[in-house]
Specification:
26% strand; 29% helix; alpha+beta; globular; single chain
């Protein structure tokens, strides 16, 4: 059965294609919460409440006494500008004619399939942008763009710096390449400091290439690994097993991006570890901004009020198409407005070199 041009090219159809979770981000190499804890916001300019944690206790009062005035927690409203990107594809008059041909369903179906293929290709680019933005946040503690809008793998040449103010350096951690290093004691100290400083519990570690070997050869871990068949098998497969030291371990070998020149760049260094809490609304959210998209493919509105009704607000990824006249054809736009947000200061703990001396 033939379809109308609105059924094929309408913004709802195209947006549904780019937002379809079956075409979604691969999250197997990271906690899924980094991608699915979404919060809709209006437009591109937003804010979040920076939430320092406290262990301050309530004060004792008499049963018949009036209540005390409490000290407000120092929450701060932080303005942010979300990442926004959009690209378009142009289709010629022949494809437009095929789509609009209600008599030849085969030709129309082939044109629809081509639109679908191109939409998925565009979707893949925007999925990569979201994924690599999260990777950059976790690996670098920053998301960098150059003046041309290219995502960068380092601060070199950056014109835009989305900073997450990570805790960096070698406090309580170092010399993991030395078999006698007290790594278990270091991990305990890091967990304790993280909990005291941020009110969160470290549950997850993203680790670089060399970390598996440092742990496997460490004097304090040898008997533990050899005495646990599951641990031994995992280390034998060059992976840190989940549950080791009561942590979930994520290999950094998949945390990479392709730069503007087509070169693959690791975002987790070989000697790097990033400590973090399981993503939750307590400290993290993925804000999805909104964008105004046209709902009418090609008709000219009769008046201003009618024109205003031809637009809709879409959060996150979006897509729409318009009919072009010079030359005749179709212009399809795909875009996204988003920002990974860490609401608790210092919630990312990044050590780029565990072989350096502890400080």
């Amino acid at each position: 059965m033939a379809k109308s041009i609105a059924e094929i090219l309408g913004y709802e159809t195209l947006t549904r294609a780019v937002q379809d979770p079956r075409n979604g981000l691969p999250t197997a190499n990271l906690p899924a919460g980094f991608f699915n804890l979404t919060v809709p916001v209006a437009g591109q300019v937003s804010s979040y409440m920076k939430t320092p944690t406290t262990r301050e206790t309530a004060k004792l009062t008499g049963y018949e006494s009036p209540s005390r005035e409490g000290n407000p927690v120092g929450m701060t409203k932080v303005p942010v500008t979300l990442i926004h990107a959009k690209e378009h594809r142009n289709y010629g008059a022949i494809l437009l004619t095929q789509i609009n041909n209600m008599e030849d369903t085969r030709a129309q179906r082939m044109a629809e399939q081509e639109i679908g293929r191109q939409t998925l290709e565009l979707r893949r680019k925007f999925s990569n942008l979201r994924r690599n933005a999260v990777y950059s946040m976790l690996g670098l503690g920053h998301i960098y763009f150059n003046s041309n809008g290219d995502l960068l793998h380092s601060s070199s040449g950056n014109a835009v710096d989305v900073s997450y103010s990570p805790v960096t350096g070698n406090a309580n951690i170092g010399t993991w390449n030395t078999t006698s290093a007290d790594i278990a004691g270091q991990l305990w100290a890091i967990k304790q400091a993280y909990n005291q400083d941020h009110g969160l519990n470290i549950t997850d570690v993203i680790y670089g290439k060399n970390i598996v070997n440092y742990l496997a050869l460490n004097d304090s871990f040898k008997s533990l690994i050899n005495g646990n068949q599951g641990f031994a098998a995992s280390f034998g497969a060059n992976k840190v097993p989940n549950g080791f030291q009561d942590l979930t371990w994520w290999s950094g070998h998949d945390i990479w991006m392709e730069d503007k020149d087509g070169t693959n760049r690791l975002l987790i260094g070989n000697n790097q570890v990033t400590f973090l809490a399981q993503p939750s609304p307590e400290w993290y959210e993925m804000q999805e901004g909104s964008y105004i998209v046209p709902t009418d493919i090609g008709n000219v509105a009769g008046d201003a009020q009618a024109a205003l009704s031809n637009f809709n607000e879409v959060n996150g990824m979006f897509s729409y198409a318009t009919i072009t006249n010079d030359p005749p054809g179709i212009k399809q736009v795909v875009g996204d407005t988003f920002l990974p947000v860490a609401k608790v200061p210092g919630s990312l703990r990044i050590c780029t070199d565990v072989t350096a001396a502890a400080s």
